[in-house]
Specification:
Elements lengths: L6 E7 L5 H7 L4 H8 E5 L8 H5 L6 E7 L2 E3 H13 E7 L1 H5 L11 H11 L14 E4 L2 E4 L3 E6 L9 E3 L6 H13 L17 H4 L65 H12 L5 H8 L5 H5 L19
Parallel strand pairs: 1-2, 1-3, 3-5, 5-9
Antiparallel strand pairs: 4-8, 6-7
Length: 325
């Protein structure tokens, strides 16, 4: 704690969309309560802090650091190590830090194929000399360095020791405030726990619809069908609810959209994508292998469907790199 009795708080944004930063602001009037309870020592997204400010801090000077974003580059990893060193409690805040999230789908490719696509192959790209980003370049003023772009996206927990995990894309405001309250009161669970979400329930348990587990002869994407006011999964819309941890109050299904799975694997689930795949397979209504193949063929982008938020944290982790055993 600071001399004034306030919590010393740090926030950082690595490889993510910025939604977790907006989620903090979505605390609305409680942002004033946060200001009253905590001194923000580092939040480069919102305030003028520099890395050198953190480097100058004594080790463990920050009470709690909310680190959002996956590890996509050397800069992300260096900041993960630095903030671990300077923080007493390091929190993987949001789905990107927790599981890899959307940036993690980059693990279907490698660095060079991504660079080829971005800097050479897109229709609007004019790059006749095939110039790619370099990690260093000599300028008249001196040598300029930029971070290395990694082949593989990793979660925060895969590069550093994490104390707690807060799921969600992004975490919801009530969940964030509950976590902050637990930190302030010191009523945190054992290290390594997921906080701000259910330890025993799935999204299906929170959903207003009851599953009847009807057999499915065709799968639909949400825009291909006008959903009825009943379980979306029973209508052939792939919903991640059966494989996803509760805690979001089933906000997506409550407005007729399938759960995307952003709160991570449900209780006792090791691999969220495998669990969802099992749920899908259990409702396929087919008498022959050919019929089953036709039905599951309706599922476009299987990896993006089953591992949308958790590929780096899954047992698959990534597509195999060529030439790597």
């Amino acid at each position: 704690m600071a001399d004034n009795g306030k919590l010393k708080l740090g926030l950082y944004w690595a490889a993510s969309c910025g939604g977790c930063e907006i989620a903090i602001v979505e605390l609305r009037e409680k942002i004033l309560d946060l200001d009253a309870a905590a001194d923000i020592l580092f939040w480069p997204c919102a305030m003028d802090f520099k890395y050198k400010d953190v480097e100058a801090m004594p080790d463990g000077h920050i009470d709690v650091c909310l680190f959002n974003g996956a590890i996509r580059s050397s800069e992300n990893e260096e900041m993960a190590h630095l903030l671990r060193q300077k923080s007493q409690v390091l929190v993987a805040f949001g789905s990107c830090a927790h599981e890899g999230c959307i940036p993690g789908l980059g693990n279907l490719f490698d660095r060079q194929s991504i660079f080829d696509r971005v800097y050479l192959e897109t229709p609007s790209t004019d790059n006749p000399d095939s110039i790619f980003p370099q990690t260093s370049y000599q300028m008249p003023e001196g040598e300029v360095h930029i971070p290395s772009f990694y082949n593989t996206v990793k979660t925060l927990g895969q590069v550093e020791d994490v104390d707690y995990f807060v799921p969600g894309c992004p975490p919801q405001a009530p969940q964030i405030w509950a976590v902050i309250g637990a930190i302030l009161s010191g009523e945190l669970p054992e290290k390594g726990s997921v906080v701000g979400a259910s330890a025993t329930k799935t999204v299906c348990d929170e959903c207003k619809y009851d599953r009847e587990e009807k057999r499915v002869t065709k799968f639909y994407r949400p825009h291909e069908i006008i959903a009825e006011d009943r379980c979306l999964f029973d209508q052939g819309i792939i919903c991640s609810g059966p494989a996803t941890r509760a805690g979001c109050e089933a906000r997506c299904t409550s407005v007729g959209m399938p759960c995307r799975g952003c709160y991570g694997p449900g209780p006792n689930v090791v691999d969220q994508g495998a669990a969802l795949l099992s749920a899908v397979a259990s409702v396929v209504d087919a008498d022959t292998e050919e019929e089953a193949a036709r039905i599951v063929g309706d599922v476009l982008d299987p990896v993006g469907t089953f591992y949308r938020f958790g590929l780096p944290a899954s047992m698959l982790h990534r597509k195999k790199l060529e030439g790597v055993g």
